[in-house]
Amino acid sequence: MSSPTTSEGALAIGEIRTGFVRHSTEVSLEEASAVLRLVPGEQVRHAGRPRAYAVSPAPLTGVDCAVPSARGRRVQGVGTVTSRATITGGRVLQVCSSATLVRSRAGYRLPWSHYLGRPGVVECLGRVDLRDAAAGFAEAEGGTRGIALGSIAEQVMDRVQGSPLLDGRLPLRAPRGSWRWAVEDGEPLFRFTVLRDGTRLVRLAVPGHGAADLLDLVEDLALHDWLLGTVETILGRAGLGSAPPDRTLRHVGPLVGHVLHHWMPAARIRPELVPLWDAVDRVHGLTRQWDALVARVRDQLALDTVAMLAGAAARRDGAAGPG
Amino acid sequence: MTVPELDAKALTDRIRVERVPRSHLSLELGHLYMEDLLAGPDALRRYFAGIAPWAEFVRSRHAARRVSTCFMVDEYFSAVRKPADLIPELVEAAAAAGLTIDYLARESACADAGGVSPAELVLERVTPDPPPGTDGTRPPARASGWLTNSEGMARPHRPSEAMAAPRRWEPPRQNDVRLHSICLDVQLWSETDGGRLWSCAFLSAVWQLLRLGVLRDEGRAVVVPERWDGPYPAEWGDLPPVVRLAERAHPFTAYRTMTLLETRFADVEAAVRLILGQVAVDPVVRAQVAEQASREGVDVPDELVRRVAHVFTDDL
Fold it and tell me: In the prediction, which pLDDT does A7 show?
């Protein structure tokens, strides 16, 4: 992809959607590559280790609308949004649509070919305050959001999910994960907000790292946060500990089969950024919660197994008893 | 203990995209309709004699640089003359005016280059010019078969409003208007019994992209010129998409193109430029061109359409 990079006076913003690939089994790397051919003629990149991972080429979407603002300012932005879809472990689909906001040199709208010459960049035609734009996009609940990056990401996601190569069957029902992020220049920053509807907002700045590196980090955080949320949702439905074992198993079985082994924090981020992942993890306790949930699933399965074995033994003894 | 710095490559399977050799300029000596080619050798000689001073001027401006020449035959819309008859006539008429045609292309190759359709590839690369107010909530209409630089001309009819009071006339508006609009709507294809018929403007835009060497199919170059030995065939389809006619010639693909045309083609080429202004180049190819150009000290604009120049001229 033509990666969004921050330079002097630039701000990268994006939205990420995370969900299961609509397919009853894990898709192979070859299948993932075929599903992710969003720009026919361009190639899909993929890696087999540390786990299967495929990245689509980056289709562009043209926009000419207001850019975000926490204070409700209206500044016109013109340019293109770039999207990428990834499939991790043959199971998890993520789409990120993003754009780098820069100040326009011209101050008026140029011929469209100018913007296609700078893919993934949106030029702001008025006086834009990039801090205000970052806050409006990735911190404030109100304010002007402007570019509908979430809609663009969802359109790309629907396009991937509509691939004739997928059978349309979800392995598990889980809500889509939704993240909005802003990568800024300047002093180190990591500000995380959770909205009432569950949307995660993150503003960050890491000197020496552009949006392309940090996108990998945010995408990985979004993936693991979504895995955690999915396991919690399913365990809630399963009525762990109170429901009959067969109901528990009906819910928990797919979790073991499809979800648990995808936990692999920081598997594809730059080594220098791993400490940042760890720091976020320490504060938000992703791994601690995950370990506790996984232990609970395993303990419950063990208990249910023991109970079922005991039940079976009792029925056998009862059947074989004196009559 | 010192831990070595790890160089993590996230993706093991790197993209491979074929590089193509490049001239500095691809100079097109003309593009004639089949009916022009029916006019006979004298008309062709007159045509090349008219073009020659311009070609000479361009060549002198590019002295010590690589310039290749090309000519496209329109055999997509009708193919009344056979390659065996026409090609020698063309070569001879050009030579009479002191010109060499290095490469000869078939227009139908822009639609079908044997196993791959360059036109389809270009269509996938179109990112439409958004009218003001476009925030991405709705995807741009893809299937319409038209491209526009403005709002209000190709506006869809809304059946639900058919019975409502007639709306006031609203003028169309160019998307990047400064003071006054120039609105263009360009048809890319029509549907016929025989399938999709690409428009002349769209195929000409594809032709420019082939000359700029920016199209790839899964990393492979889409059209590679081939030498033809022996007599030319009776059918155009038996020829490769682009034939190298000259013994020695600079590469077919180039950093920039220039096209010499009669003024009657101005409308078609305005449409070509509108289309090219809405085509996004594969980012890997874009980077390759930039790298090749900077190594050679050549200035190549980021804007695709600004790599494409036209000269319109009738009789001198």
Answer: 44
